[in-house]
Amino acid sequence: MTDWTTPGVYPVAPGVHRIPLPLPNDGLRAVNVYVIDDGDGPVLVDSGWAIPESLELLRAGLAELGTSVADVRRVLVTHVHRDHYTQAVSVRAESGADVALGVGERPSLEAILAPGDVGLARNVARLHRCGADELAGKLPRTDVDPGTWESPDTWLEPGTAVDLGARTLDSVPTPGHTRGHVVFVDAAASLLFAGDHVLPSITPSIGVEPEPSRLVLRDYMDSLRVVRGMPDRQLLPAHGAVTASAHDRIDELVAHHDTRLDDTLAAVTAGCTVMDVARVITWTRHQRSYAELDLFNSVLAVGETSAHLDLLVHQGRLTSREVDGVTRFG
């Protein structure tokens, strides 16, 4: 079987092709951009990271399909993370394409576009609340490159139906991975363009954004149940191979987080911080210790632990209190 990250153009369904595009310095290695033949010009679901090698491969893939970046009519983006959104800005500059993003992403995008390093300040504040000041001191600046981030043309309201002529995609809000994440459902063709909401082999991070909601794990679990309540469809993920069933993977993700909640609760000691718990539990499919993680994954680990602890408090299984701006659990 071909590695899903191998460059090329891969048919998924009639009129739909997958083009994996590279990611710089990222363990995910690639992001899937889906090209829908709309008759009047290609429509992209997600766009890739705005780096030269990604745009070059997108050009090559579209050329293989008999079209070009200049012909792209729409870019439908599942969420605001740079590997999904930023290349849409480049595509729009060349084609005039309409870029659409879920309206729930507006607060985070406004923070990204705000003058000054808002993202760094907010990350430092969150890490302080988690008892992770040492980690906060290692964070790099997150200044926005001019021209990389811009506002979309269309903010997708919940339940918006996107008319593509030959097909209709329903945009379904699925907050959790980000506050405004959406999936696109082609009910007639039984396709789920899932973005990072449902990934076939890894567990999506949650709440990694400038303006997360208060209970990101609750949001994510609720969103999984929303999609699980729909008819089962072919899963078209942003990272990983296309699979036949979204339901099977959703069941695995729900079970994973249920187990993770139990493991997190078991790691709590009286007066502990988020950082204390993150150091006790293991990480990734390889069951690595916290000490084995690099800076990026250490920050993710603290955020994930915080989300599980917050939900345990919300469920009444834990209590929390603030001491000198640091949250302590028991």
TrEMBL record:
It comes from the Bacteria. This is MBL fold metallo-hydrolase. Pfam families: Lactamase_B. Residues 30-239 form the Metallo-beta-lactamase domain.
